[in-house]
Amino acid sequence: MKRIATALVLIVVVLALVLRGETWMVALACAVFAGLAAYEYRALAHDQDVYIPLWWLLGATATIFFFTIRLPDFELPVLTLVTFILLAWSGFRAPINRVLMDTALGLFGLIYIVYPLTLLPLIRSHEDGIGLLFFLFACVWCGDIVALYVGRNLGKHKMSTLSPNKTWEGAAGSVAGSVVCGMAIYYLGDYLSGRGYTALHIGIPAWQMVLLAIVLNFAAQLGDLMESAIKRGAGVKDSGTLLPGHGGILDRIDALLLAAPVLWYILLLKDWQGLFR
Asked: Could you write out the three-class secondary structure of the chain?
């Protein structure tokens, strides 16, 4: 019951923010989630005798969000700058044999957690952005829910040692759940658009949206497995305890961390080459 209540509250807050909030509000919320998830990642790294300074991690998160949203052309130089700051700071700390590991894992935290979440407000500000974000969330969340129930009731064939509870049956159910729920959002947007409400409309052919749902589901499942690998390497079950019944923030956004960049790259290809024309 605690797990369901937490999930419902989060879903309502996120969807209301995307639908009714300004882009800067979405960016601020994403930055907060990124900071909390990065903090959990830092704790996992510390368990492996890697030290990432908190002032650097939170400062780098805020800086990257600011430049990605306001001055995206400076994103790579800023990422390079904050990495060199961490390298220099680590270089003056003992023991010297930890400099490379501390810097590398600090940079990985930014690429793995912070950068993907900066893409959510960018997607929202894109053409049909609200509908695309709802579609993304539906593919990720519904796929995860269906995988859980199908895996528990029908799962017999284990999928990976990275996550012993995952089965191929659950994975197949996840794909089906993403397609069904994603297309429900698509057709809802189509229906509402015909009645004058265009916020959820997505101007992409239906068959291409089916393919997109499948691709996003694959990315989401891979993102889930990637976080499982990190946690198993750190010897923990959950990334944190912030969300009752769910573990940590990182546990809840792991699938989104890969699915969001995949959607963004597809949108870039669409704009560049007219992929969906």
From this structure: CHHHHHHHHHHHHHHHHHHHCCHHHHHHHHHHHHHHHHHHHHHHHHHCCCCCCHHHHHHHHHHHHHHHHHCHHHHHHHHHHHHHHHHHHHHCCCCHHHHHHHHHHHHHHHHHHHHHHHHHHHHHCCCCHHHHHHHHHHHHHHHHHHHHHHHHHHCCCECCCCCCCCEHHHHHHHHHHHHHHHHHHHHHHHHHHCCCCCCCCCCCCHHHHHHHHHHHHHHHHHHHHHHHHHHHHHCCCCCCCCECCCECHHHHHCCHHHHHHHHHHHHHHHHHHCCCC
